[in-house]
Amino acid sequence: MLEAPLSRNFSHSTFVLRGFPSLQKHRRLLALPFSASYLLVLLGNSLLMYIICSVERLHSPMYLLICTLCFVDILVVTTIIPNMLLGFLFNWNEISLVGCLTQMFFIHFLSSVESTLLLAMALDRYFAICRPLRYNEIINSAMLVRLVLFTLVRSVSVMATLVGLAGSLQFCGSNVIQHCYCDHMALVSLACDSTSRSSAAGLAVIICFVGADIPIIFFSYMKILSVVLRSAAAGEDSRKAFHTCSTHLIVMMCFYLVGSITFLSHNLNIPIPTDINNSMGLMYILFPAAINPVIYGVRTKEIRDSFLRIFKNRAKKIMTVKVSSAGKGKS
């Protein structure tokens, strides 16, 4: 008679992360593509941040938002990948409840910050293209300060509530998390008491960020495209605006679509195989982080030209040093 109450009074304080359960025999091979992806994210985003910070004419709101997006991408990927690689290579899969909740908070917090940045970038392009005469009046340093405050208040309050509800649950059954990192619903699904409040909080996150941000982003880009199509005779400016919009939409489609499916699969009991759900959970974080340097770097003329200018200047300096060193050697 006491067995059931005793088991429900017990709660795990340590968990085991088991991502890609059907591929456990090949987990060391899995480390290779994820290591390469992580290095790509670090190198690409760091280079893009360096270019934007080094070139003064790129210190406009749009490029500062891109720079911040790169920084957030590095942070969110670093929150997940190193720990995951240790699990793949050395079987270090254990994580404490406090460590799990901390990782969960930063993953979801940084993802929500990225959502706000994508919203800000859409509004920046809207005012630059649809309201150019009022752009400098609206998009200024005061607006950027308000954006930071709005981001912190919204993201911290919502994600702290989400993580707090998850941390208040009892985990008396299995302590194996079927994911590569501490995903919210992957942990909550292990609870042995009611998870209705945590599930409702998860849906509230989708409504608060996806439901609120996507309509504004969609409206902004529809207005931008309508202006671009009406001014088709403008030639180069129209192509440039259309090009900018298309690059932003590529990132947003991946981020919001895949992220929403992953987040809702547990909440709505959508039967998605564990390995596929793990892949989608990683893809919605890794893919935008890896592709952003290409979209905003290679495909953006101002940044591409700045990179080539910096590269040529560095090459000239190296050649000058070598020539001067050779001259001194001869003398």
Automatic annotation (TrEMBL):
Keywords: Cell membrane, Disulfide bond, G-protein coupled receptor, Glycoprotein, Membrane, Olfaction, Receptor, Sensory transduction, Transducer, Transmembrane, Transmembrane helix. Residues 44-296 form the G-protein coupled receptors family 1 profile domain. One of its GO terms (cellular component) is plasma membrane. It is a multi-pass membrane protein. InterPro entries: GPCR_Rhodpsn, GPCR_Rhodpsn_7TM, Olfact_rcpt, OR51/52/56-like. The chain crosses the membrane at residues 30-51, 63-85, 105-123, 144-166, 200-221, 241-261, 281-299. Its main location: membrane. It comes from the Eukaryota. The keyword rRNA processing does not apply. It is found in: Cell membrane. GO terms for molecular function: G protein-coupled receptor activity; olfactory receptor activity. Belongs to the G-protein coupled receptor 1 family. This is Olfactory receptor. It comes from Neolamprologus brichardi.
